[in-house]
Every structure is written in C-alpha cells, then in structure tokens.
Design brief:
With about 180 residues, this protein is of the alpha/beta class. It is about 25% helix and about 35% strand.
C-alpha cells in the first residue's frame, strides 16, 4: 500500500493526479492532502519507505522542494495529465464588479484573459486552487481562479471556464 502525499484540500489538480498515478501504475493506496507541498515533504521524512510525494511542475518554488530535500527524496517519475477545468468563479459578484480575486500563484494570470473584468483588481494568493474557492465562498475575496470541481463544491457560480490545462506532475520517492 502506497500513500501519495500532495497538495490539498480536496479538489486540487494534485489530488486528481495522485489518484491517476496510483491507478495507472497498478498501486493500491491512499492520497494524503496537505496545506502545502512543503508540509507534505516534511511529513514524508517520518513515513513508510514506499510513500511518494506528488508535485506539480508549476508549483511555486518546486526547485526548492527538490533541492532542500535531496537527503531523503529523489525524483522518480513525471507525467502529463489534463487538469480539472480552470474557472473564474464567484459567490455573487458580476464580472464588472469584481475588485478582489483569490488564486493559487500558478494560474493567477488567467484572470487577465476574462473580457469585461476590472483591470484595477487586486489578487490575493492562496496555497491551492481549492483554498481559493473556499476563501471566495467565505467572502474573503469577490471571486477566484480555481477548478470547476472546487467552485461547485463551494457553491460558487462559474463566470468563465478556461477548460482543462495539460499539466506536468512529478513523483518523488524516499531514498532507501
């Protein structure tokens, strides 16, 4: 049984990729979600030797995650998977009334592709797409860039759908 440690909360593209990697490689196992990939890597220092870390190639500072953990983690696999549809979602704001947008750092530039969006908006960064949706639902921000699945789970209205994005994911195993 393998545990894949990756970015949460539920609904992240990393969670989707972790389940796909288990299935495609014929492994039975579970997916454990963390607030950050850095937290996942730290936790893996104290887990079973067959556990793996799944990262996303556009994760901010993935290079630090790799090089700071060379003493016990090594890159063993990479693959490409379509993400969930990336969306702009809001609890109740119209596109032209949005002043604040929550996003994970990686997809934040999608906001500039939305016609009619306020060009003077501010972007608040969160640890994951799912967290951005949760914060939008809690009225911390007017709208969010997130996944369709997270937006729906949080009861948000989808204002723009950017579709899936072909994305790279990395698998890091413990050094025996």
């Amino acid at each position: 049984m393998i545990t894949v440690h990756t970015l949460g909360p539920a609904g992240t593209n990393c969670e989707k990729a972790a389940h796909l990697w288990l299935k495609e490689n014929g492994h039975s196992g579970e997916v454990k979600l963390y607030e950050t990939l850095e937290d996942a890597a730290k936790n893996m220092a104290h887990t079973a030797n067959n556990d793996v870390l799944l990262g996303c190639i556009v994760y901010p500072h993935l290079h630090h995650l790799v090089f700071k953990n060379l003493s016990y983690l090594k890159l063993i696999d990479c693959f490409v998977m379509d993400t969930h549809n990336m969306v702009l979602a809001s609890k109740n704001a119209a596109k032209n009334k949005i002043r604040t947008v929550g996003s994970h750092p990686a997809p934040q530039d999608l906001i500039h592709q939305v016609p009619g969006i306020n060009k003077q908006l501010s972007i608040t960064l969160f640890n994951s797409n799912s967290e951005a949706a949760r914060q939008c639902a809690a009225d911390v921000v007017d709208a969010c860039i997130s996944t369709d699945i997270s937006a729906t789970r949080c009861g948000l209205a989808i204002l723009a759908d950017f579709g899936p994005v072909p994305m790279g994911f990395s698998i890091h195993a413990k050094i025996a």
